[in-house]
Structure formats: C-alpha cells, structure tokens
Amino acid sequence: MAVQAIRDSLKQRGVRLTRQRQILLELIDKSGLHLDAEQLYKLAKEKDSKLNRVTVYRTLKLLKEGGLVDELDLMHWGGDQHYYETRTKQEHAHVICLRCGKVEEFFGEPLQKLRRQVESHFGFQVVLARTEIGGYCAHCQVLRAQEAREAADRAATAPPRKPA
Amino acid sequence: MAVQAIRDSLKQRGVRLTRQRQILLELIDKSGLHLDAEQLYKLAKEKDSKLNRVTVYRTLKLLKEGGLVDELDLMHWGGDQHYYETRTKQEHAHVICLRCGKVEEFFGEPLQKLRRQVESHFGFQVVLARTEIGGYCAHCQVLRAQEAREAADRAATAPPRKPA
DNA sequence: GTTAGTGCAAACCTTTTGCAGCTCT
DNA sequence: AGAGCTGCAAAAGGTTTGCACTAAC
C-alpha cells in the first residue's frame, strides 16, 4: 500500500504524522479518484468535523513538495482548482472528456520516450511531468453529433433571428 | 504571419476586431513569449492606457474558445495564473526549469504518437493536448550542486541546532 | 519540553459578472 | 439602428498568511 511508503517518507523528513494528515492521506490514496482540495476537505470533515480547510491546503502542499502526490489541472474542466493523486503508479497521461468530464488514464511508451528525449536533448533533469489531453470520449462524440443535428433542425424551423 | 490567420478566423465567427483586440493579438503573437494576463494587461496599457484588465480576460477567453491560443500552466511556477501562446506552431511540450523559470519548447514525434495512441485506444477525439515537464536545466543543475555543497559546509561549521 | 502543526479569521490573487454607455458595421 | 464590445465596480473562487493555542515526538 502506498500510504505506508508515504508515511516512511514523511518520517524521514521529520514531518509529524498527525491525525489530520492520516485522514487526508487515506482519502487521497485509497479513493483512486482525482479529488480537489474542496472535495477532500468535505470528505475529511466527515471523519473529523473540526478539521479545517486550511489544513487540507497545507497538507497538500507538503505532500506535493515531498513528491508524494502529483497535482493535476485536468484542463480546468470544472474550474481553476487542482486535483491530486498519489504518485505511485507509472507515469501516465490524463485524458479528459470536455463534455462529461470523465477522466481516463493512459499508460504508454511515448511518455517514457518523451521524458528520455527531453533529458538528452536539453541535458535537462526531469523532476515531474504532466500530460493532459482534452477532447471528446466515444460516448460524447455520438451525443454531440445528435445535438448538432437537433440544433440544425431548430434553426431550419424557426427563422434565424427574431422569431416573429 | 499568424495574426492574419487569426483575424480571418475571428471575422468568420462574426467577432469584431476592435482596437483593443488588435493590440492584444499583436502582443500575444509577436512576443513569442509565454505571457500571463497581467503581463499582457500591462503591455497593452502602454499602447492604450484606457484598456481594462477585464478586456484582457474577455479577449483571452474568446481566443481560447476559438482555438486560436493555447493556455498553459507552466507547472505553476510563479503562481496560479495562466500563460498564453498563439496556436500556430506544431504541437510541442513545455519544459520549465523549477529553479530559474526558463521555458524551452520541445518538438518530437513522441507527442504525435501519444495523440494517435490515445485516439485509437479510447476512440477519443482529441481537441487539445498539453504536456509540461518540470525539472532543472543544465545550468541550474550545476548551481544546485554548488548550493548543496555550501549548505553542507555551513552545517558542518555551525552545530546542527542552537548555535551556542 | 520543544518544535511543529492546527484552527480561525482575514487577506490575497486571479478571474468572472452585472450593467450602463460606447462603437463597430 | 442595433448587436457586440468596453470600462468600471464589485463579487466570486481558490489559496495563502498571521497569530495564539494545541499536540506530536
């Protein structure tokens, strides 16, 4: 379990593992979802009603700095907040549907290749990488086509501007 | 020049090309830099002191929606604002040094391959893709090593905690 | 017993919105 | 003329900070 690895890492840095942090750690890791600070706060509050939103932000900052969680933007679908996931899996891209918001994870060798090329091309030392791809999932492509057809129908029925 | 293509695209959408928008368009395209809304606002103000910050945001939104500019996060180095660039070049990744903030652009086939794989793997229709890589540039790697050495020296000279 | 961490309130920064007046076409 | 656009002020959303109190080691 990744939580254990994270605990060890924190202990090594002399960071205290408080009750609040344990709760947040659990939530981030086990959900497997991509939660933002606010969602995390609400979930954490169910386990400790006193836990403050500020503590969530401070904990996330800590974990981020320690390279224990990755911060995502998910193409700013749904706002400008950030999303978090534990950094246990292999490097992957996030593929997000701009219509329904569904997030898929893509693992594949182009990502590793890209990293290696950037390292050798610029003599760059890669610390973190983030690839986000926005578009339409198979399901929403169909729905969008349908919507476009309906819109065209409406336009043909009702006159372009002022419906007399 | 890309500005012309953008003008045509806007005209087609029935969007007016006002004096303010021309100024902003010029700035975004010709600088070749990755400017954020505030920088853009300040530069635009030099050409038209009346131009409002809100107009900058509205124009950016318009260009973004039209797929004419891309919005970047640059790994949130320097804050939570967004950066903009015209969408004329080939797809590329942004490589940003977490120490000095320098941004490099990387073009390479892994990016195209990634896109194609995501499309075929999920039946996904890709609209926009963003890859950002954070780490240390060759120059800063040297400086960081130096800094680490100096810190070690300091620690060895002065006792760990309370300097008696 | 120290030092780090928490909660609370308030500030901060970036971005958006409502509305009256202005301006392109 | 008329829709679109701008400026201003104010609000909204997300995140950070200062400080006194509390808890982990």
Gist?
The structure is a homodimer of 164-residue chains. The first copy, chain A, has 164 residues and is an alpha+beta fold.
Give structural notes.
The structure is a homodimer of 164-residue chains. By secondary structure, chain A is of the alpha+beta class. Chain A has two domains: 1-88, Winged helix-like DNA-binding domain superfamily/Winged helix DNA-binding domain (Arc Repressor Mutant, subunit A), CATH 1.10.10; 90-156, 2-Layer Sandwich (Dna Ligase, domain 1). Chain A has six helices and six strands. A three-stranded antiparallel beta sheet of chain A has the order 1-3-2. A three-stranded mixed beta sheet of chain A has the order 5-4-6. In chain A, α3 (37-47) packs across α4. Chain A is flat and about 70 Å long. β6 (125-136) of chain A pairs antiparallel with β6 (125-136) of chain B, so a sheet runs across the interface. Chain A binds a DNA duplex (25 and 25 nucleotides) through residues 14-21, 36-38, 50-55, 57-58, 61, 79-82.
List keywords for this structure.
2 domains, alpha+beta, 6 strands, Arc Repressor Mutant, subunit A, three-stranded antiparallel sheet, homodimer, Dna Ligase, domain 1, disordered C terminus, DNA-binding
